[in-house]
Amino acid sequence: MHEMSLAVAVVDQVEAAAKSRGAVGVSSIELDVGELAGVVADALAFCFELACAGTVVEGAELITRTVPGTARCEPCADVWAVGMPPRLLCPGCGAAAGELVSGRELQIREVRWAGPEAAREERRQPITEES
Amino acid sequence: MCRAVDLQRAVLAKNEAAAQILRTELTSRGTTVVNLLSSPGSGKTALLERELRLAGERGVAAAALTADLATENDARRLARSGAPVKQVLTDGLCHLEADMVARHLHDWLPESTRLLFVENVGNLVCPAGYDLGESLRVVLASVTEGEDKPLKYPTAFGLAQLVIVTKTDMADAAEFDETAFRAHVEQVNPGVEVVLSSVRDGRGAGVLLDRALAATEGNQVHTPVMARAGA
Question: Is pLDDT of A121 > 90?
Fold first, then answer.
């Protein structure tokens, strides 16, 4: 299961960023995961729980956003949803797609740091809030 | 109360950076890496043993790094070819990463090596996402695995620069539909070369070696659509 390696990579990168910014906690991490990235969101979430234990990332919410796969045909200038399994031949002319426009993303899109104010608030109100 | 920051960082950035360093290092000393992917039992080791033997006969300095969760069986088989061989035991990990390859090259790979074949862990899912610093990525599928394998594992087949069908001596017995297989490959990886091979009857002998040597020239390698990701 390569999701464990990915989860460790996410935690490592966010930890390094937290250190460089002096952040004391992380409230959420949003990931872009392409339809063709070969990543199972549930498996990643499971591994993330294990990977962040004992780090500054512990307790952070992991939000995964699936990015659909789309391809473009050069001659037709057509862009289509490739689906799964992907169809990388143009539905219009049958030519090979010129490029995959989206679908292979595997990126940390956004991190929400938990500031000292957030930490104080959590102490007063231990129930996690959706915001 | 919370500060948001856009990191926009590739999760696999660390591996990609390691792969790029490895590729630069090895290419500068004249070594080209070939990454071999397939499901377990598709015949990677048998094909590699044959191709390494041919490399020896043709005077091409080739070596192999072979990865498994357990046993040194593959290293023992490959060593029969006479080529330098090293076994990587992944301790349960289902794929190789660039830094694992880099770590295992020290004190082993002869400086004169022209081709380094990396036999990945038998798995069509996880290894697909990891660049190992290769200049050529090859995916194998045996005739017994079913013609729809490229559709079931689109990332592995979609990112390959060469597809080798193995065990073709058994194609009739397995009722392998070559036309359907080729169409499925074309759907996920238009324009990629599909070649037929059998270690038992000698079909396609030297195909891996020839394409690997062509890759050392740099400009003859197919670029899959999936690797041509837009901005």
Answer: no
A1-113 fold: hypothetical protein PF0899 fold (3.30.2320)
User: Are B114 and B151 a contacting pair, CB within 8 Å?
Assistant: no
Please, what are the domains in chain B?
Answer: 4-220 (3.40.50.300)
Q: Nearest-CA distance from B216 to chain A in Å? A: 25
Report the 10 Å Cβ neighbour count for A73: 21
Q: Could you read off the pLDDT of B163-212 as tens digits, one per residue?
A: 999 999 999 999 999 999 999 999 999 999 999 999 999 999 999 999 99
Q: For residue B133, what pLDDT band results from cuts at 50, 70 and 90?
A: very high
- Cβ–Cβ contact A62 with B under 8 A: no
DSSP designation for B170: G
Pairs from B175-180 (Cβ < 8 Å, separation ≥ 24): B176/B143, B176/B144, B176/B147, B177/B147, B180/B147, B180/B148
Are B126 and A99 an interchain contact pair (Cβ–Cβ within 8 Å)? Answer: no
Contact list in A for residue B5 (CB cut-off 8 A) is 17, 21, 110-113
* Alpha-carbon distances, residue B134 vs A84, B7, B23, B159, B216 (angstroms): 27, 28, 7, 12, 11
Q: Check CB contact under 8 Å for B2 and A13.
A: no
CA distance A103 to A86: 10
Chain A hits for B14, Cβ within 8 Å: 9, 12-13
- Tokens coding A45: 């979430």
Question: Could you tell me which of A48, A39, A45, A41 has the C-alpha nearest to residue A11?
Answer: A48
